[in-house]
């Protein structure tokens, strides 16, 4: 029997996702038409023997999350539960705190995944790989190759090429360590809790001996990467399964558009029914496009490639949308044009208006390039990136909004470029 745990973080996380994470917790933000987490859940539900999926985070339970859990249980006929940490306990502290819940029913192993990644989730391959490498290892880490510069933004693993064992692990190193990076997707046997428990005990001891107990962080906060992997690497406890398939982090809104593109192209073999097709009386579709069945789209509109249109969206005559996500309830009036942008819930783009951003895709000439974790400002100016309209923003007719971030509930009255509109 198997289980899966997805680390969804909490409200302080997801700051690079603002202003979109004001309205919906980042893990529920739609990527290729469905909440980011649904891609994880779909992959887990396909694994034979999967009994339960646990979402672990420090969000207060809320209506949106509850509704999502209900829908997932009904759709995938599997138990999907949310467990709330009393504080941010780190990537290993949370699973350790809830170890009895995770191990109840006696799973032989469990998957652990970061919520903010997109991937083909080669879970079956990881299981097989673990079987082939014997039971000696308590964990399999999914790894992928990154270029040398970008590898510094991730956990880096030195791998024995013959045995696939992790020899050395450094989280976000200052200088180059290895071009094999940690994808944030793991398979663990229950044995992992012995190692986390040892760190917990050590933290407790140190805390008791500490003269200023308030000055130290709580013993329960444990980081899988720094506290566990670094120690276990080289101990013949961890091995690395390297994927050749797509994988990306979803940290910023720009990376959500990139992740949408990856999932939309995967739909050709996983969910062809989710891809829009050209048909009589319908809009012109170019490349991969998702359209929610309730969207109302004028037949003269042109959409794609890489477009996701949410629930109840209205697109007028002659509208053009490319490389963008249009969230539910938004209206794009006649002849408006939206490129490389996210249009927030219930926003309106006026007639002949143009909303345009600059894509921040990985370098297409480098097979190992990843999305850059963009900084908002560079050299005192806003870094050109995708344009984001928060929820309920009104863009008047005939204006241009370029490379800007517009916070929710704004009525703009003119054109803007390279600005954050508060
Ligand atoms: N439940 C819970 N989840 C958490 C907590 N802290 C982080 N998370 C979740 O754990 C995941 C990792 O988040 P970060 O701690 O922000 O790490 P990172 O910068 O994304 O780096 C991690 O992922 C990279 C791959 O995307 C890895 O390369 C890297 O080694 C590391 O694992 C995210 O899904 C986040 O929501 C916590 O205290 N509690």
Automatic annotation (TrEMBL):
PROSITE patterns: HEXAPEP_TRANSFERASES. Belongs to the transferase hexapeptide repeat family. CDD domains: M1P_guanylylT_A_like_N (cd06428). It comes from the Eukaryota. Residues 3-202 form the Nucleotidyl transferase domain. Pathway: Nucleotide-sugar biosynthesis; GDP-alpha-D-mannose biosynthesis; GDP-alpha-D-mannose from alpha-D-mannose 1-phosphate (GTP route): step 1/1. Residues 285-421 form the Mannose-1-phosphate guanyltransferase C-terminal domain. Regulatory subunit of the GMPPA-GMPPB mannose-1-phosphate guanylyltransferase complex; reduces the catalytic activity of GMPPB when part of the complex. Mediates allosteric feedback inhibition of GMPPB catalytic activity upon binding GDP-alpha-D-mannose. Together with GMPPB regulates GDP-alpha-D-mannose levels. One of two paralogs (gmppaa and gmppab) that may have redundant functions. Pfam families: GMPPB_C, NTP_transferase. Keywords: GTP-binding, Nucleotide-binding, Nucleotidyltransferase, Transferase. This is Mannose-1-phosphate guanyltransferase alpha-B. SUPFAM superfamilies: Nucleotide-diphospho-sugar transferases. The keyword GTP-binding applies. One of its GO terms (molecular function) is GTP binding. PANTHER family: SUGAR-1-PHOSPHATE GUANYL TRANSFERASE. Gene3D superfamilies: Hexapeptide repeat proteins, Spore Coat Polysaccharide Biosynthesis Protein SpsA, Chain A.
